[in-house]
Design brief:
alpha/beta; Elongation Factor Tu (Ef-tu), domain 3; Rossmann fold; 3 domains; globular
């Protein structure tokens, strides 16, 4: 296809410039409204799913009964439900290398195609029209980009993170094309770099540099090095970019006002929801863990009783009463309705929050280990969605500190789905890594614990932790196994029992563990088994 745009065309008349502006505004508005419509529909579906009553449990036939045999015969035939299950599984596969999941790419490519079509449509041969259109369409997505990250929706931290990342990359791509095309136009027109010194262009250049800094801070290596830095850069860029673009491109100011208001309202609501809670800190040096027991208001206790394995945002009080919007998410390992307390357990990393908590908890004085912390939440929980599925069998696998998510789910299922057959696998490096759970009697009797010390390479950061002498362990040897769990045997044992039984598999731990489990579940899904999958990763 030949290049159809004139980079430097003749001067436009006032009417032509007006029509160009109208076309840019029209297509930007279409992009804006379509994004809001999709977000509204998705939000409505999530609300309906959350409010729908749980279906009654399905009667489990005796395996040798004629009804069960007939269902197994149908199981072997073509079934549209099984086909949809296989498609859903295929869409949820991770592409590896940190590229994300397949459905994220499909949704992202479809939406990118839609936005690019709006950028190109009816631009004719006007290259400057195309360039301006890409910038306007990109900015039109900012309100939705801010909305999907709002904590007020109560979405899972994982869901928010993924949706926000997909749309953020698309906005960044369009803005990059906008900048590249404008610079190309300046070069061809012979006004580069003089034009870059104009104040209106400087606003745009600074905004783009901030977006580049945001992209760098969002890389996995930077997040691992300092999650706090990533959050701080995110917040600074989210506050400054709308202001800079507000002066850079007056025609798109409405979108910027919407985005800025969404951010401010979210921060304000989170400040109102956040509470200062008296907390007791305990540091487990040999396991490199810090435990926080906080006394919380009744509303948080009630919410946690209905939403096990939810997460809260934790931050440290700031001097002079300033509010710190930079919370770190932590899964609630347990809660006590009668005492009005919740317990958080975190691995000490390089970030300032966990390091500060460990320092405060290491004090020799018991009184000095009591501090006031700020908690916002709880948010997000998969428990209700899991109960609505009424699985007959549930496989729960935790790696290291991932048990803070798995153990509350197990307790909730025992109470609300007593007929389900549960199997819990917990892999740790040393028995000391389970101290926080065993001392609080949180580990069920039927749990299988695997100690992997000596079976992993020294540099493996998956579930390896520093050792504690075995005398510090309170685990019964009856449930303690040496070495890694045989995931093939574990998964096959769950799926081989009852072809007609719906199965749920939940994993919380490092990405490698989740990938291994999913790889072993896939053959059963391909065969047509009804499997519900959820993977929760910890850390950044």
């Amino acid at each position: 296809m030949a290049w159809s745009w004139d980079v430097v065309a003749g001067p436009l008349s006032p009417d032509e410039k007006h029509r160009r502006r109208e076309a840019i505004d029209l297509h930007a508005n279409i992009a804006h409204v379509s994004a809001l419509a999709v977000a509204a529909i998705a939000g409505l579906v999530m609300l309906l799913l959350r409010l729908r009553p749980c279906p009654p449990p399905v009667y489990a036939q005796v395996p040798t009964s004629p009804v069960a045999k007939a269902r197994r015969t149908r199981f072997r035939r073509f079934d549209a439900h099984h086909l949809l299950s296989r498609i859903r599984w295929w869409l949820g596969d991770d592409l590896g290398g940190g590229a994300g999941r397949r459905h994220e790419w499909i949704v992202g490519l479809v939406w990118a195609g839609w936005l690019l079509a709006l950028c190109v449509r009816d631009t004719g041969s006007d290259f400057l029209h195309l360039t301006k259109r890409m910038g306007a369409v990109a900015v039109s997505q900012l309100p939705v980009l801010y909305l999907v990250s709002l904590k007020a929706f109560g979405s899972s931290h994982e869901v928010v993170k993924r949706l926000h990342a997909v749309l953020g990359r698309l906005v960044g791509l369009l803005l990059l094309l906008h900048v590249v095309c404008y610079n190309y136009f300046f070069v061809v027109a012979g006004i580069w770099p003089r034009r870059l010194l104009d104040l209106i262009v400087v606003y745009g250049v600074v905004a783009f540099v901030l977006l580049l800094a945001l992209g760098v801070s969002a890389t996995a290596s930077v997040r691992r090095a300092s999650y706090r830095l990533f959050i701080r850069v995110h917040l600074v860029v989210a506050l400054l970019v709308p202001l800079l673009v507000f002066f850079h491109a007056p025609p798109v100011r409405l979108y910027l006002v919407e985005a800025f208001l969404a951010l401010i309202v979210d921060l304000f609501v989170r400040k109102l929801r956040s509470v200062n809670v008296p907390s007791t800190l305990v540091f487990l040096p040999d396991a490199n863990l810090v435990a926080v027991e906080a006394t919380v208001p009744p509303r948080i206790s009630r919410a946690l009783s209905d939403s096990p394995a939810a997460y809260v945002y934790l931050s440290l009080p700031q001097p002079r009463g300033a509010f710190d919007f930079l919370h770190n998410p932590f899964t609630v390992a347990s809660s006590d309705d009668q005492r009005g307390t919740l317990t958080l357990v975190a691995r000490v990393r390089n970030g300032p929050v966990t390091r500060t908590l460990a320092r405060l908890a290491s004090s020799s004085s018991s009184s000095s280990r009591k501090h006031t912390l700020i908690i916002d939440g709880p948010y997000g929980s998969v428990a209700r969605r899991l109960i609505a599925r009424h699985p007959a069998r549930v496989l729960l696998i935790a790696g290291g500190i991932g048990a803070t998510f798995i153990l509350p789910i197990h307790r909730f299922l025992r109470e609300h789905l007593p007929e389900a057959r549960l199997r819990l696998i917990w892999a740790v490096r040393q028995p000391a890594d389970t101290t926080w759970a065993t001392e609080a009697d949180l580990v069920p009797e039927d749990a299988q614990l695997f100690v992997t010390a000596g079976s992993l390479p020294p540099n493996d950061d998956a579930i390896e932790m520093r050792p504690l002498p075995s005398s510090g362990s309170t685990i019964s040897n009856h449930h303690l196994h040496r070495g890694r769990p045989d995931l093939d045997t574990v998964v096959d044992a769950v799926f081989r029992q009852g072809h007609e039984d719906p199965v749920a598999v939940l994993v919380c731990g490092p990405a490698g563990l989740a990938a291994d489990v999913r790889r072993r579940v896939r053959p059963w899904v391909i065969q047509g088994r009804d499997a519900w999958w959820h993977s929760e990763s910890f850390g950044c």
